[in-house]
Amino acid sequence: MSKASNKKVYRLPAHSLAKISLYKRYLSIYLSVLANTPFKIIYLLDLFAGEGRDIDGNACSSIAAVEALKNHYDTANVVCKKVKLFFNDYGNSVIEKDLKKIDRVERFAKELALPSHYETTYSNENFENIIGKVINRLNKLDSLEKALCFFDPWGYKYSKPQVLKDLMANGKTELLLFMPMCFIHRFAAKALKDEDYAAGQHIEQFITELYENEFPEIQTQVSFIKGIQKQFKKYLQVEYVDVLFIEKERNQYFALYFFSNSKRGFQKMLEAKWSIDEKDGRSFSVNKNQFTQDLFANVDHEDYSFLLYERLKEKKSMSNQEIFDFGLDNNHLPKHSKKVLDELKREGKIKVLNVDGSNASGYYLEDKHHKHIAIKII
């Protein structure tokens, strides 16, 4: 079926199913973690909730969230005390033209019959009217409240850096942002150089604001996406930023960015992402052909084995906590650090010592582990 007809009948394309799959996987992990914390109220927000389901019955992001929450309640030994879902979308359905999109979301959500202490609110407002209200409410979160916002604005004109910064300002919100980077990259150079290029107005505003009038790296889509990731971290002033590449067609990418100030939350997102791409933890292809082996090789010298070894040589010695933190800072999990350390140990390049100087039996790569060890360069 053609792209035009897919849009007409609202059939979710493969790249949309990929982003929703990651979101749902993360929610499953996220809810299980938060159920074992003191948080009393968890907020899940989706400001572009979609149609609920497409014509094939595939869940949009909003219903995927309800499904994840339903599964959490039905299967987890310990469940979140209270969850408040907020779904918003504006306009009429393209599937059932006599209904609002949000009416379909509500119908499908009610079919899943969440328990009463999981509350759902539905809204039919345009983005400009509702975003200020959402930011104001998020800024009032207390120490026992947590929020996750899924942000898929069907383009880029609503993804203004200042809006994203305001959403994250409270320090208690995590954000998933989907962006059509292949389109942004395609028009970026022209939008930045040609003031009369009306079609590139929103792209020019986005890049100028995010880069604070500096010029981005636009040589390739991959370098552009990674550059945006680094600039997001600088501009938004958040602890952690990660990105999943979603290959729509060969060398044509969408990107799902994740922002968090929570070390634990970020680790769980990495686990969800690596479960999709066990080889690189970076990408998902909607085609059967996998990425070429050198597609992401040496992008900004980010080979993790090289980076970790270089840091060890620089510092001469690193604690298990420092190794753990270094991994997260470079978008890798403790199991990846262990693999690097195992290889260095086999090659006789490091020694692993307890506090008393004796040989340690393991690395203990967990956050704030009670056992302290040192990994030293030989």
Description:
- With 378 residues, the chain is an alpha/beta fold.
- The chain folds into two domains: 3-285, 3-Layer(aba) Sandwich (Rossmann fold); 303-377, Orthogonal Bundle (Arc Repressor Mutant, subunit A).
- The protein is built from 13 helices and eleven strands.
- An eight-stranded mixed beta sheet has the order 3-2-1-4-5-7-6-8, with helices on both faces. A three-stranded antiparallel beta sheet has the order 9-11-10.
- A hairpin with a 2-residue loop joins strand 6 (240-249) and strand 7 (252-260).
- Helix 2 (14-34) packs parallel to helix 3 (61-75) and helix 11 (304-315) crosses helix 13.
- The chain is globular and about 75 Å long.
The proportion of residues in beta strands is 15-25%
Structural class: alpha/beta
Rounded radius of gyration (Å): 22 Å
| Strands, total number | 11
Summed up:
43% of the residues lie in helices and 18% in strands.
Layout of helices and strands, plus pairs?
Layout: H1 3-9, H2 14-34, E1 41-46, H3 61-75, E2 83-88, H4 101-111, E3 118-123, H5 127-138, E4 145-151, H6 161-168, E5 173-179, H7 181-193, H8 201-210, H9 221-236, E6 240-249, E7 252-260, H10 263-276, E8 283-285, H11 304-315, E9 317-319, H12 320-329, H13 334-346, E10 350-354, E11 373-377
Top keywords for this entry?
378 residues, alpha/beta, Rossmann fold, 8-stranded mixed sheet, 11 strands, 18% strand, globular, disordered N terminus
